[in-house]
Write a structure and sequence with these properties.
single chain, 3 helices, two-stranded antiparallel sheet, mainly alpha
Length: 87
Amino acid sequence: MEKELAKIKEETELQLNAMEGKVPKNAKKDGEEIDWKKKYNALEKTLQEERVKSTTLKNDLNKALRIISREIGENFDIDQVIILNFN
């Protein structure tokens, strides 16, 4: 029981330190080395790529909506036009 509590306490401290940026470069957990800086940088890069994709998709959607609204007119509801065309 005490070993389990000590392990939980250690994991909690690692998580808290990670949130505060205090995790040592190579923290050991169950004998394997974890390079937190590399993991953080990889996740940060992935997050940045996803943000760029999201922004690009939003811009493309807005362009497409503007083109469609020019084609069908400003006063028409695009959703209604799509429903009418597929029925």
